[in-house]
Amino acid sequence: MATSRRSLHALLGGGAVADVLLWRRRNVSAAAVAGATAVWFLFERAGYSLPSVMSNALLLLVAILFFWAKSASLLNRPLPPLPKLEVSDVVVEKAADKALVWINRVLAVGHDIAIKRDRNVFIKVILVLWVVSYVGMLFNFLTLIYIGVMFSLLVPPLYENYQDHVDEKIGMAHSVLSRHLDTIISKTGQSTKQKKTE
User: Is the residue at 1 inside a domain?
Assistant: First the structure.
């Protein structure tokens, strides 16, 4: 079991983020859950909008920094300790490389559907898009983000504790879904062949 825990930790990045997701830093993980819940409550239930909260927070920050700098010059105190605020070329290049990989994957799927006429990929894409559309009708965007954050903070530790049982059930579900998908694909293949012979 220790090897599977190490592999799950490595799969999640192996650093501080993996520690937070697996609740090895309980205070930080609990703070993340509380913070996500507070943000969701602020925007979803209290009726605030993101632009108004962001502009008010930035207004407060700019006012504090301005008065701090003014009082520091009058009282001969040090200026506010601000880091150098700029994005490095390395960060932009890494983000562009990751975005390029994802964009190429999406384009490869589109190529498989449009050019190769791969029915398996076509049906999988349709099913995934239908599920996303259906879930999107049930919740608004902010609630979906909140649910995603909660899942990312609560599912990995549960999976780590019950990995053998979860893998067994997921394997069974995968075999059943694969059987149904193969049946659908074979039936659609037969109906198109029958139409061509007619």
Answer: no
Entry pTM: 0.52
Classified as helix, coil or strand, 40 is helix
Q: Is 111 within the bounds of a domain? A: no
Cα–Cα distance measured from residue 20 to residue 44, given in angstroms and rounded to the nearest whole number: 25
Give the separation between CA 62 and CA 21, rounded to whole angstroms.
33
Taking alpha carbons only, the member of 157, 135, 144, 137 closest to residue 43 is 144
CA angle 87, 33, 99 (to 5 degrees): 35
Task: Answer whether residue 72 is part of any domain.
Answer: no
Q: Residue 68 corresponds to which amino acid?
A: W
Number of H helices, E strands in the chain: 8, 0
In a domain, residue 66? The reply is: no
Name the domain count of the chain: 2
Residue with tokens 């649910």: 147
- In order of 80, 123, 130, the CA distances from 180 in angstroms are 63, 12, 17
Structure confidence by residue, pLDDT tens digits, 121-162: 888 888 888 888 887 788 777 788 888 888 888 888 888 888
Token digits for 125? 């894409």
Identify the domain containing residue 43 by its residue range: 9-47
Higher pLDDT, 33 or 83: 33
- Provide CB contacts within 8 A for 23, sequence distance 6+: 29, 153, 157
Listed residue (114, 146, 179, 139) closest to 42, CA to CA: 146
